[in-house]
Design goal:
Layout: H1 2-21, E1 27-29, E2 38-49, E3 52-64, E4 70-82, E5 88-101, E6 106-118, E7 124-135, E8 138-141, E9 145-148, E10 152-156, E11 158-162, E12 167-178, E13 181-191, E14 194-205, E15 208-218, E16 223-233, E17 238-240, E18 243-247, E19 252-263, E20 266-276, E21 279-290, H2 296-299, E22 310-320, E23 325-336, E24 339-349, E25 354-365, E26 368-378, E27 383-387, E28 391-393
Parallel strand pairs: 1-2
Antiparallel strand pairs: 2-3, 3-4, 4-5, 5-6, 6-7, 7-8, 7-9, 8-11, 9-10, 10-12, 11-12, 12-13, 13-14, 14-15, 15-16, 16-17, 16-18, 17-19, 18-19, 19-20, 20-21, 21-22, 22-23, 23-24, 24-25, 25-26, 26-27, 26-28
Amino acid sequence: MKKISIIVGLLLVALAMFLVIMPTPDIISIGPSPERKVEIEKTRLSGWQAGTKTWEIKAEKIWFGQDKNLAYFSNISDGTFYDKQKAAVVNGLKCNGGYMIFEPLQIYLKDGVRAEISEQGGDKMILATSQLEFNHGRIFFPFDVALASAKEQVTGKRMTYDLENKEANISGNVQIKLDKKTASAGQVTLSGDTYLLKENVVFIDSGRKVECAQLQWSRAGQRADISGLQKLSTKEMQIAGSTAVIEPARDTAEINGKVSIVRNNDKIQGSKAVIRSGKLEMSGGIKLETNQLEKYADKVRANDHSPQRAIITGEKLDYDPSKNLTIIEGQVFVKQGDNEAKADLVHYFDKAKMIRMEKNVFMKQTDQWLQCQKVKVDIAKEEFISEGAVKARIVIEK
């Protein structure tokens, strides 16, 4: 009888040991943690909500401690987070380890976190960071984040990813490389094919540098919509305005709303400016201020050691940097001190210090005046040539 009892006891011990070390199934649903520590090797843990799988993690080891509300992971080789349509939004997740709180559900993963993130439209970006926190349908990456695709790279200090909307919000000195374009901002939202940049935005492309409050970049349309424009800089000029649209593929930039341009020593104002292949077109209340219309060395006054500035107003302005030529049209008025002039068309060669006025030209200086159809003024030589129905009143000093 004793031998039978001993044999039965040994069988029970062997059965208990077999149950502990037996091979585990591939998928284990979340349930209450056992009171004692249980370790499961090479398995996949899945989470469900309202009958829909929301996430799953495959790890080298998953174990449960005395706390029934905790599970621990090590060497995660694959992980996936799903949206409500059961689509894998974050997949290929890998990291060294982490843990999970069952109620309320929270997942914390850390050390060498890598994953593939899906965007609206099906595009994917590779994620690299040090820590991941999952909570209420959002994934938070609290430390240095890097996203990359074939033509794009994004880095920032932290990121929140909305699984349902497939929207990433990145903040903290965000740096972006978009093919041949670069940008930086305090905050960036990546949604679908759009980047929305806010806070101290800088955007550089094809010799243009934009500084603004907000910029929205469409990857599909290759277009930047800008608001709160502080400065748009090119090799030839600096432009300020309210809003702007830049299309690099067309080499075009359009600026609207109280546009102000600084070019060499000139200042130009208007309501709209368009730069096409480096050439400037402006319209709406043109005002150009320059000191190039007088001979600097001979015109400095005794009490004013700066040149006397000329003001040119008109309706439309075109500027070609390659020719150093500015053309102003539509009831053009020129005023410099006591000198006044008007015409329908003005050609202004700033570096050559030459101005040509055409159509209904009228020039006046104190009690002298000149009327003609065309006049050419050489500022450097202090001489002019007029032609076409010339009428004048000139006072000759004895």
